[in-house]
User: Fold Relaxase from Niastella yeongjuensis.
Amino acid sequence: MIGNMTLGQSFSGCIGYCLEDKINLSEEQKMELSINENLQHKDRAEVIHYNNCFGTVSELASQFNEVRKLSSRVEKPVMHISLRFAPGESLSKDQLVEIAQACAAEFKFDQNQYVCALHKDTREQHIHIVANRVGYDGKAVNLTNNYRRMANFCRQMEKKYNLKEVLSPRKFLSKEQRLIPRHDSRKERLKKDVRETLLQVTTYQAFEQKMKALGYKVLKGRGISFIDDKKVKIKGSEVGFSLSKIERILELRQKVEMVPKEEKMRAKMIQEYQPRPGLTAYQKLIEQTYMSAQFEQLQQSAFFKLQDELFKILFEPQQGEQQSQSLDPHWLMELKRKKKKQQRHRL
Assistant:
């Protein structure tokens, strides 16, 4: 579960975003996206809870603005909270309301005006809460340490509702927790897509077209980066596929394709050899001895060496990649800062 909080000045704009459809989509586009993605883009928002307020977008904005006048010192009275759940997790509306109410209690705006809406236009279930920081007593909600409090709140809800547990932002973790390797599903998915695509193509142009068909935007310069459907940019080197590595794999794939079909079939037969049924023990021994000699010859062939190198590059992490996965860069930065402080004290 991931929580995000932002502050603003316009109630009408924030409430409109949370309770209405996306303004940049026409009715035809909403219908087309709903069919293609099997999601609900038309009437995407469903209000599941009102607190000390009620009505349409304009009516809610008017009610919120009347209360904000009770405190002229608050420059940003709009509090917008989004709570997103992991892929595959689905909570009932009653549970979502309970989480929204728990969030309001945690941040002390449970007596203020707020509205909660469920969005249905994404695969991950998520809710939006728009709250008035100004209460009926004219006092504003205190948001000191709100990022840390939001992280702690999400961890509590994960345990209470048996949700997938997520590590909090690194700066809120202990030194021991910072050493725990993080599983990044987005990077894992990109790594899998790049590898499977490279097994299907022999040219960079075909590789880029396949990646675009999977929903990625490919940026090629001195290196290579990929932007997914959530507009998240990831360098190829971050998932073990730098531009030079991709080019080397494509070069090997081209050489493999140039090997005569008869040689490939012979290599496949040797590699997949199984003793024939019905043979005597002596016949099996003779056949296995012959096939062992054939396999030794195959290992010395250019085709086998190409396949072996290709397999190692595709599936075996390089030494640098193994180290980058086991060491926490943030922890290393802290270690360097401590060393610098020690050096200054010595001087």
User: Anything to note?
Assistant: The first strand starts at residue 2 and ends at 8. The CA atoms of residues 118 and 127 lie 4 Å apart. Confidence is low (pLDDT under 50) at residues 319-328.
